[in-house]
COBRA-like protein
Amino acid sequence: MAGRRPAFPRLCSSVALLVVAISCLVPSSEAYDPLDPNGNITIKWDVMQWTADGYVAVVSLYNYQQYRHIQAPGWKLGWVWAKKEIIWSMSGGQATEQGDCSKFKSNIPHCCKKDPDIVDLLPGTPYNMQIANCCKGGVLSAWAQDPENAVASFQVSVGQAGTTNKTVRVPKNFTLKAPGPGYTCGPAKLVKPTKFLSQDGRRATQAHMTWNVTCTYSQFVAQRSPTCCVSLSSFYNDTIVNCPTCSCGCQTNSTAPGSCVEGNSPYLASVVTDSHKNSLAPLVQCTSHMCPIRIHWHVKVNYKEYWRVKITVTNFNYRMNYSQWNLVAQHPNFDNLTTIFSFNYKSLNPYGQINDTAMLWGIKYYNDLLMTAGPDGNVQSELLFRKDASTFTFQKGWAFPRRVYFNGDNCVMPPPDSYPWLPNASPRLAASLLFSFVSVCAVLAILLIHV
Ligand SMILES: *[C@@H]1O[C@H](CO)[C@@H](O)[C@H](O)[C@H]1NC(C)=O
Ligand SMILES: *[C@@H]1O[C@H](CO)[C@@H](O)[C@H](O)[C@H]1NC(C)=O
Ligand SMILES: *[C@@H]1O[C@H](CO)[C@@H](O)[C@H](O)[C@H]1NC(C)=O
Ligand SMILES: *[C@@H]1O[C@H](CO)[C@@H](O)[C@H](O)[C@H]1NC(C)=O
Ligand SMILES: *[C@@H]1O[C@H](CO)[C@@H](O)[C@H](O)[C@H]1NC(C)=O
Ligand SMILES: *[C@@H]1O[C@H](CO)[C@@H](O)[C@H](O)[C@H]1NC(C)=O
Ligand SMILES: *[C@@H]1O[C@H](CO)[C@@H](O)[C@H](O)[C@H]1NC(C)=O
Ligand SMILES: *[C@@H]1O[C@H](CO)[C@@H](O)[C@H](O)[C@H]1NC(C)=O
Ligand SMILES: *[C@@H]1O[C@H](CO)[C@@H](O)[C@H](O)[C@H]1NC(C)=O
């Protein structure tokens, strides 16, 4: 095992410096995510053609977030019209409500609401109602995972809108639901009209007018309680460090019956099928942590030049198959990751040089679907790291991840002084060292989030 002096204080000070440096560079924003500083969803609105009383536009959503996707039942985009606009017709999407169109006698608009909400159409929509990048049921992949499916578009024909670039007004108050809260959208900004290249690349056409809206995500806006937690174990210590109690919620007694389900309950099947009414809320198995998702990091084997970690993701939610799930983990040894079994891997380097952050996701048709709670409700992988003699150690919890995200949400970690220790380590000293490292970094992270 590592006989060298640990590089912890040095690591901490360099991390601290880096974090401070970065916090001064990035523009302040409440929804700032240090592992994906440029992550956003950009809505682009291209006016393609004038009509008798308005225009036809193609509206596209680009999910530029590295690891946060939108899964079923999908996105919902809303705005408030600036004047008395109406929607004559749509393809590749639809307004959820028509609203009051009683003023119209012969030609009935698709939607007359002042604040329409648009959703995607479902796969299998007839061809004459489709456009490119539509009809995926509102599912939008993460950019790092599947950039081709990280774009969604629909076409809208707008009436009573003005027919020149001087009379058209940009809509206000864009909202993006995914499908719950979490995204905050800025104002629409007129930008240079988009250019479209012909297939052979020899001719470019352009939109009459284009405006962009940027929406950013914040876990704080999305929901107050976390959705995942981390547990730890190692070959060198029998202790299994469980997720902290009440990580995502507490088991309440009689006050809220049905807040969780016992895994061996004979009524399980009926409870699960019964409660389709509110299918967005998770229905979790009763555990001390009450999280829908648990990530277990096991330090499995120590070789001469390598070491091996096993990661298990367990679903405790009876109401959710997690399709296209992903995991982000931060550990200093990811710059020497040698092999990864049965997951896809991509290095994320939000700050250029340092690749200590990895994005992991399932292999298509093999384990990209994390099944509902039960015997099939888990996915596993093993990672082989090459030891870098200057940093590698099993002491002071170095072998455990610094940060873990599941589907873009930060997971609750056990307190560092509870990590499994090497039998010969002096736990008190090690604990205080590690604790000060983590607390300094946590304070910096908190500062960073609130900048
Ligand atoms: C949105 O994300 C893209 C791609 O990462 C980036 O180029 C752009 O600057 C971002 N926009 C804002 C307003 O942050
Ligand atoms: C509107 O069109 C005119 C003439 O094509 C152009 O000069 C002007 O910049 C356009 N304005 C906007 C807001 O796009
Ligand atoms: C847009 O949102 C702002 C702030 O939430 C609100 O004050 C304003 O009334 C809204 N505008 C419209 C047209 O709904
Ligand atoms: C507007 O959004 C599109 C699509 O993301 C992007 O290509 C374009 O550069 C954006 N324009 C500006 C000025 O940000
Ligand atoms: C549930 O309530 C009983 C009595 O009301 C109490 O003894 C027990 O500790 C409670 N359990 C939990 C998990 O709160
Ligand atoms: C999860 O997927 C399985 C198999 O595709 C399906 O039978 C089941 O109904 C799904 N469960 C939920 C809650 O969507
Ligand atoms: C680290 O990042 C560099 C450049 O971004 C990349 O070439 C290299 O493969 C990455 N290393 C690992 C282990 O992913
Ligand atoms: C580990 O990765 C770093 C940065 O990519 C490299 O400088 C170093 O040589 C690697 N160490 C080993 C043992 O491969
Ligand atoms: C294993 O780690 C725990 C801390 O989580 C510690 O209390 C215990 O003493 C360690 N066991 C051995 C054999 O060192």
Notes: The chain has two domains: 41-221, 227-263+281-450. Residues 227-263+281-450 form a domain with the Immunoglobulin-like fold (CATH 2.60.40.290).
